[in-house]
């Protein structure tokens, strides 16, 4: 901890020096004037980034979609190889990332996380290399780390309820979150497992909204905790489960396009907004490529590619919503108290493991 | 020089085995902050916690008993049919019985999940189409896990039991028949009791393997809210915050049970009072089973269909579909899963890494383990029995638990090995020590000492003798060990899952990760591509080894 604050301090001083004197160094990128390269405004040294030749990305996005995003970047910058990536759910990704860093192995350049509590823990431990992308200004402060430049929301998904229309007639479908406690869903509900960031957000929100009882009653429903959204929808579409209790709108849209027998419910009590944040990792082996990637990802070009691949919402006002997606402004949205989310994270993991059968 | 080699080999192996275990013990006793190292506080609270909520341990015992029972039925039945009866095509069938080992429980579980999901499984879809109402089978259950594990462990049990059956003198069976007993009566009253030590030994070995097994429990258990020790450890470690102490306590408990069983196994194997192997020459005779021959033949074929043909065909079928269905009008064929598969990490980097690691593990392992076998069985070095014990030790540690120990041990080391292929190599060399040493020691013990002694008498140094006499004599053993180690490391999952990273992906964990996030069809495509490449690599290796061998003989 001490070491980290000292490093932060040194970096802060260096940044200050760079800003005042224009000294090149760690903070050069932050002080340098941005230039436009292939439609992307960046302060990264593109030639150096291409010389680094690779970018190692850690992210929880669906693997196929994660590759689509990386390939969109590689198309613009073909000299930067993006073939080495690590795809895991946020909780696992962070467990791996912290274990690696403790072991003195620094492999990640850029990391996406879907849990603000974890992103803040990473920030507290000096995990992010603070980098003020020229695009950060386009994001409202609430969609950035507290001191901007550590992490920024690169996308958001809307989370509601989904059900199988072959097995559940619309009249009987759950209308609101509390309907999930109806005993008729016993054994046919699915959620995510405790490695999911958004599951933690839902756990905390509902505890506040509906009281501790909600999840105790949910335990009686014997819900499944699945390892990814792909599994959640696969089981829903095939009829193994009837209701998805933490349904991502993005994946619903993609499956609906293919004609899957499913429907989405926007609960009147509000939909959950699931963030994905991105940032440059401290001691990245390819630091310039990392900065270039984050600039690209947060730029209108990169955001368009990100939305196209993932069907998430961009937090930029100048990037369109995913095809078929309602504007987020029309929805009642639920956002947790992030400080509380940080404080209760350990409790969430324990309780959620027990809820989905690990006791 | 001799002493130096001994010293290096012994200390490396001792270090490989004991160093991670020490971490495991310390971590299990850590009652302070779970991620602090070294622990700030010691106690037994983690074990007390296990005793309070024993569900995971009981689940593990339950599913292991169930699957061991089934495995033994498969193993005994097949071994008896193929070594004691007159079924047609015995030679070929016997060779084919090894195939399930290559298919692996991981692919087996994936295929059986597609076959036996209660609503969407292909078998159940067919059943509903024929008018069935309740699901015919449900593999997402303890019974389903046990079924898949038994199918694929069955071939190991078969090999162990049939080896024993073949060395049994048939005179006793013949006497029984002469005295008027029927064939089945003879099988149950004579053959089975005679085989008791071999069967018991195999059963214990299989049960211990089941306790540490992971893939089937992950794919078929976790969606059913059913956790065993290995899947629980996986869940506890790969979370934020990770619960290392509880995971270590679970791992040690499992290790304790397994170590006890292995001790028992050793006692049974060495205390054979059922002497049927005598100096009298005998001719292995097979029973003529009459009309039952075809029934027995069908049993063998059925096993191969369930464990090999059906799973592979299912993966092939599913990989070519847009949606998983058996309703002809809904079937949409596509090759897009293969196109995607070639762009994704499991095929692109994991395959290459696995083959590379396989070759490295096999080559380094075979040499290392040959030296160890020579030290243990051919020298009078003090403490060689202790060394034998240490080397065989990983046998009684579930591979996932060893992976956990290695993870904890290397994370705190200043050498940046975690997240690289090096750590995987260390892991494989350690967990496969017993496999390699057992294979090689079998050959070492067969070599007559006098050959080596002649070399020494003629003035050769130890190294010269090893190089010119021992190693050439060991060649068949070395080649067998090489192949075994190669296959074992390519199909490894349990120890690897906790150790992989972006630059160190390997097949098993990569397939598992696709199963989690890429969907059934895509995973099936990737799994098939991998199996085919591994088979092709094996074929090339076998051909090369064969050529080298022949060249050496000329």
Question: What's the short story on this structure?
Answer:
The complex is a heterodimer of chains A (359) and B (554). By secondary structure, chain A is α/β, with parallel strands linked by helices.
Average predicted confidence as pLDDT of chain B: 86
Largest sheet of chain B: none
**Rg over C-alpha atoms of chain B, rounded to the nearest angstrom:** 25 Å
What is the helical fraction of chain A, as a range of percent? 40-55%
State which percent range the strand residues of chain A make up.
15-25%
Largest sheet of chain A: 10 strands, mixed
Terminal CA distance of chain B? 32 Å
What is Rg of chain A? 21 Å
The total count of helices of chain A amounts to 14
Derived from helix and strand composition plus strand pairing, the structural class of chain B reads mainly alpha
What fraction of the residues of chain B are assigned to beta strands by DSSP?
under 5%
Average pLDDT score of chain A: 90
Query: What is the N-to-C order of secondary-structure elements of chain A (H for helix, E for strand)?
Result: HHEEHEHEHEHEEHHEHEHEEHHEHH
Question: Helical region count of chain B?
Answer: 24
* Total E-strand runs of chain B: 0
Classify the helix fraction of chain B into a percent range: over 70%
Q: What topology emerges from the helices and strands here?
A:
The complex is a heterodimer of chains A (about 350) and B (about 550).
Chain A: H1 2-21, H2 28-31, E1 35-37, E2 40-42, H3 46-52, E3 57-59, H4 63-76, E4 85-87, H5 90-102, E5 110-113, H6 116-124, E6 152-164, E7 189-192, H7 197-210, H8 213-220, E8 224-226, H9 229-238, E9 243-248, H10 249-257, E10 262-265, E11 271-280, H11 287-298, H12 300-310, E12 333-334, H13 338-343, H14 345-355
Parallel strand pairs in A: 3-4, 3-5, 7-8, 7-9, 11-12
Antiparallel strand pairs in A: 1-2, 5-11, 6-9, 6-10, 6-11
Helix pairs in contact in A: 3-11, 4-12, 11-12
Chain B: H1 2-28, H2 45-52, H3 55-84, H4 90-96, H5 99-116, H6 122-129, H7 142-166, H8 171-178, H9 183-194, H10 196-211, H11 215-221, H12 229-237, H13 244-270, H14 292-319, H15 336-343, H16 345-378, H17 384-392, H18 399-411, H19 421-431, H20 433-446, H21 449-457, H22 462-490, H23 507-517, H24 520-553
Helix pairs in contact in B: 1-13, 1-18, 2-13, 3-7, 3-10, 5-7, 5-11, 5-14, 5-24, 7-10, 7-11, 8-9, 10-13, 12-13, 13-18, 14-24, 15-24, 16-17, 16-19, 16-20, 16-22, 16-23, 16-24, 20-22, 21-22, 22-24, 23-24
